[in-house]
Amino acid sequence: MHDVSRADYWNALYLAQDTGWDKGRCAPPIERLLAEGHxxxxxxxxxxxxxxGHEAVAAARHGFAVTAIDFAPEAIAAVAxxxxxxxxxxxxELLDLFALPTRFPNCFDAIVEHTCLCAIDPQRRxxxxxxxxAALKPRGVLLGLFYAHxxxxxxxxxxxxxEVRSSFTSRFEFARLRVAPDSFDHRQGLELEFIAxxxxxxxxxx
Length: 206
Ligand SMILES: C[S@@+](CC[C@H](N)C(=O)[O-])C[C@H]1O[C@@H](n2cnc3c(N)ncnc32)[C@H](O)[C@@H]1O
Description:
Blueprint: H1 7-15, H2 28-35, E1 44-48, H3 54-61, E2 65-70, H4 73-86, E3 91-94, H5 100-103, E4 108-114, H6 125-135, E5 136-147, H7 161-168, E6 172-179, E7 191-198
Parallel strand pairs: 1-2, 1-4, 2-3, 4-5
Antiparallel strand pairs: 5-7, 6-7
The protein binds S-adenosylmethionine.
S-adenosylmethionine binds at residues 10, 21-22, 49-52, 70-72, 75, 96-98, 114-116, 119-120.
């Protein structure tokens, strides 16, 4: 398996322009989620594994205070250039998302996920859940899309709806988890759209 936990693996893909995941614009379900009012007006949003930043620029255009986070320097250079060109200001951060708890503890009203979880080693999913939970404010919202394609290997590493529930339930409550109705054509039926709120209490015993 490629060492997807290393920034230089991803950076080399950007340098080689081998970025087939990049559709050149914000994914339609994310654009819609940003407009639906799940995040307080002008709230603070992190876009993790932001790549060239189409979702980050869209969030800035929706009026949010955006921090675009990626550990590949080429991605961070691209999002900075794209936001300048689009005329929407945002902050960039060259950071491994597993360092979110120390760099951004309890900081964000929301975190946007788009083709980031599918880029990390599946063995590190519980670490991912803890990292994003720790970077959210109490009752903060994780929203976006999980990739639920049916191929065995990765990246992108697929996740199923039941794996999403079992991986996230200890730290998040799902307000929505469904197949996105408006994915890019070639991802139709393969993306799970979700809105999940950080739990700040232990689930009641049943
Ligand atoms: C498949 S790309 C998707 C990029 C972007 N979300 C998009 O849809 O265009 C995955 C991105 O996640 C970044 N990434 C992977 N693991 C990361 C980590 N541990 N910390 C920060 N960024 C990471 C990669 O550098 C890459 O830019």
